[in-house]
Specification:
By secondary structure, this protein is α/β, with parallel strands linked by helices. The protein has helices at about 5-25, 55-65, 70-85, 95-110, 115-125, 135-145, 155-165, 190-200, 215-220, 250-260; strands at about 40-45, 150-155, 175-180, 205-210, 225-230, 245. The longest helix has 23 residues, at about 5-25. The N and C termini lie far apart (about 50 Å).
Length: about 260
C-alpha cells in the first residue's frame, strides 16, 4: 500500500483511538437517554460540517506541485497531529498545525515547500471557505423553530468568526466557541464539557452536529445528543455508538427536529 494511501487510514484510526483514551482520562458522564428530548441548544462543528473544504484544492494543490488529490491527506494529517499535541500535553493553534501538516505531506511526496508557502496556501483560503449549499437554508429553518445555535470548533475564535462572516453565516449563531479556551482539541471530553458549562446547559439538553465520526464519538461520550451529517466521503466509526440522528444535510436535520415540537 502506498504511503499516501495508508496515512489517511492511520490518521482515522489514531483519531478514534484517541477518543477512547480521552474518554478514560475524564469522569464518565451519563449517557444520553433512549428517549429523545428537544435540545435547548444545537452545537455545530464548522469545517466540513458547515463549510466546504473542496475550494482549498486549488491553493493546496498549487503548493504541492499540482497535487490537488492530496487535500484529504493534508486535512487528516492536521487532525491527527492536533490530537498528538493534546495527548502529549502541548498546545499549538490549529492554523500552525495545518501549516506543519502541509509541510509533512509535501516531504512525504518529495515536494519542496517552505513554511511561508505552506502558510499562504492554507490560512487565507481556510478563512474564506464557502458553505455547503444546504447550510444557510437549514440554519434559517432551525433558528425559525426557536433553537439556539452555536459553533464549537478546533479553529481559533478569530478564525471561526472570520470564516462565518465570509461565508455569510454569522447571523444564525448566538455564540462561537473555540477550543483555544480549553487548550485541547476535540474530541477530548473536556472540550464538550467546557462548552456545556459555558452555555449553561446539561449534556442531554445539547445536540452536537458534525460530519466527522470522531466528533460524534467524542460528543456522545460526553453525554450530548448527536447528529451526523452525511457529507460525501464521511462515515461513522462502526465501533462507536450510533448518533441520535443521521441525515443527509442541515435541512433534513431541521425537518427531523421539527417533529419534536
Amino acid at each position: 500500500m502506498k504511503v499516501s494511501t495508508l496515512l489517511p487510514w492511520l490518521a482515522t484510526v489514531l483519531l478514534l483511538g484517541a477518543t477512547t483514551v480521552f474518554a478514560n482520562q475524564a469522569a464518565h458522564p451519563q449517557a444520553p437517554t433512549a428517549q429523545l428530548s428537544q435540545p435547548k441548544v444545537i452545537i455545530f462543528d464548522v469545517n466540513e460540517t458547515l463549510l466546504d473544504l473542496k475550494s482549498m484544492r486549488k491553493s493546496v494543490g498549487a503548493a504541492l506541485g499540482g497535487r490537488e488529490d492530496l487535500l484529504p491527506l493534508w486535512f487528516s494529517t492536521m487532525l491527527h497531529h492536533s490530537l498528538v499535541v493534546s495527548a502529549t500535553g502541548d498546545y499549538e493553534s490549529f492554523g500552525n498545525i495545518g501549516v506543519a501538516a502541509l509541510q509533512m505531506v509535501a516531504e512525504i511526496n518529495g515536494i519542496d515547500i517552505t513554511q511561508a508557502q505552506a502558510k499562504t496556501a492554507i490560512l487565507t483560503p481556510l478563512r474564506s471557505l464557502p458553505p455547503h449549499p444546504d447550510v444557510a437554508t437549514g440554519l434559517a429553518k432551525l433558528k425559525a423553530q426557536g433553537y439556539k445555535l452555536v459553533t464549537l470548533t478546533n479553529s481559533s475564535l478569530e478564525g471561526v468568526q472570520l470564516q462565518l462572516k465570509n461565508a455569510g453565516l454569522s447571523q444564525y449563531f448566538a455564540a462561537n466557541l473555540s477550543i483555544e479556551s480549553v487548550g485541547v482539541f476535540k474530541p477530548h471530553l473536556s472540550t464538550y464539557q467546557w462548552a456545556l458549562k459555558s452555555l449553561g446547559v446539561n449534556a442531554d439538553q445539547a445536540l452536537m452536529v458534525a460530519a466527522h465520526g470522531w466528533d460524534i464519538a467524542g460528543a456522545h461520550k460526553a453525554g450530548l445528543q448527536t447528529a451526523f451529517i452525511q457529507r460525501k466521503g464521511k462515515v461513522l466509526f462502526p465501533l462507536a455508538a450510533q448518533p441520535n440522528y443521521s441525515v443527509l444535510d442541515i435541512n433534513a436535520l431541521a425537518s427531523a427536529l421539527s417533529k419534536l415540537k
